[in-house]
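Protein modeling request. Please complete all fields; requests missing the sequence field cannot be processed.
Requester role: graduate student
Desired output: 3D structure, token encoding
Chains: 1
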Amino acid sequence: MVAEINEDIAGVSISAPKNNRVAKLMVFYLKEVYRGSAIGPHLLRNTIEKWIKQRVGRTIVTFASDEFDRLAPFF
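Delivered output (75 residues):
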């Protein structure tokens, strides 16, 4: 899924089916210039709506191990 602002790619969300009713969010990225402008929540909402249509019941999110301490509290 791609978020565009005035034909500029502002962010991307890439997910794939892992197995029956499970999806893996592999990439979620926003260009620095668009961070803080509500693009991220909009992109995530559209990604979740896609999963709902696909009847995904569980999601797996991975991130770089060097970011674990900073990101773990969100999960």
